């Protein structure tokens, strides 16, 4: 047997040891999450809201017009005694596997982080291996976190993209907000002598009208999502809000390395 024959034999033999796509995920089997939010109800249970992308309604219509007569996203909510339990309960409402890997936004209720603190709420997110550590975190200001995900937006068909885009623009142009990721928050919480500051977002207009498709079919929207100040934390709990010049000062000092 010559050298070429031996090489061919080894190549053929090695094929049997190669694994296939054991972890492949078919698109038609997944519910792609673009954003999640956490609230609490009057009974003290956590409410987890998930914003799912409707691929057929997004194609060709991510920006401006297009997208057909249906919404680009669908929203589901579920409750539980813990954030993790609320997540499991949400999965029972959907015929597909919840897929977190594309989620790039986490919205937290100001009431929840004021009472429970960031660490208790974000622990479940940190433990979920599919959740991206680069997902942005914002605090819902004067509104429910879930309502932010239910409000439809015009230019950016996916509301999560609208929020992230606004954060980026306001940080660069006005300096009154800043992008903060899940990784940033967790790193700060586990660092001695440091406290996070996180951008806030609010709703301007009629909350119920903002959930309807008609809201984005007008030249002047009934409801808009707006960046709204910086949430200030102490020992991981929300204690105050800074606006305008105060917010600029906080961000400037953070960039210089000064911490709360």
TrEMBL record:
A GO cellular component annotation in the UniProt record: membrane
Residue ranges annotated for the Spore germination protein N-terminal domain, each copy included: 24-199
Pfam families listed in its UniProt record: Spore_GerAC_N (PF25198)
InterPro entries recorded: GerAC_N, Spore_GerAC-like
GO BP annotation list: spore germination
Annotated signal sequence range: none
NCBIfam families, A to Z: spore_ger_x_C (TIGR02887)
Protein name: Spore germination protein B3
Protein species of origin: Solibacillus isronensis B3W22
Upper taxonomic lineage: Bacteria, Bacillati, Bacillota, Bacilli, Bacillales
């Amino acid at each position: 047997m010559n050298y070429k024959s031996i090489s061919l034999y080894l190549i053929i033999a090695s094929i049997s040891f190669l694994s296939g796509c054991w972890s492949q995920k078919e698109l038609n089997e997944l519910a792609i999450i673009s954003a999640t939010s956490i609230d609490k109800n009057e009974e003290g249970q956590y409410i987890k809201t998930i914003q799912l992308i409707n691929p057929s309604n997004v194609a060709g219509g991510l920006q401006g017009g297009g997208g057909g007569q249906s919404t680009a996203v669908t929203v589901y909510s579920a409750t539980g005694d813990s954030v993790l339990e609320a997540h499991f309960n949400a999965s029972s409402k959907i015929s597909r596997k919840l897929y977190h890997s594309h989620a790039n936004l986490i919205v937290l209720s100001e009431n929840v982080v004021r009472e429970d603190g960031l660490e208790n709420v974000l622990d479940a997110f940190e433990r979920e291996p599919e959740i991206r550590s680069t997902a942005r975190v914002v605090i819902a200001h004067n509104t429910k976190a879930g309502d932010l995900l239910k409000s439809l937006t015009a230019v950016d068909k996916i509301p999560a993209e609208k929020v992230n885009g606004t954060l980026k623009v306001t940080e660069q142009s006005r300096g009154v907000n800043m992008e903060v990721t899940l990784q940033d928050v967790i790193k700060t919480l586990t660092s001695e002598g440091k406290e996070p500051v996180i951008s806030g977002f609010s709703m301007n207009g009629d909350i119920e009208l903002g959930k309807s498709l008609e809201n984005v079919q007008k030249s002047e929207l009934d409801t808009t999502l707006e960046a709204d100040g910086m949430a200030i934390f102490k020992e991981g709990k929300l204690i105050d809000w800074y606006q305008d010049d105060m917010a600029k000062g906080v961000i400037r000092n953070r960039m210089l390395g000064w911490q709360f």
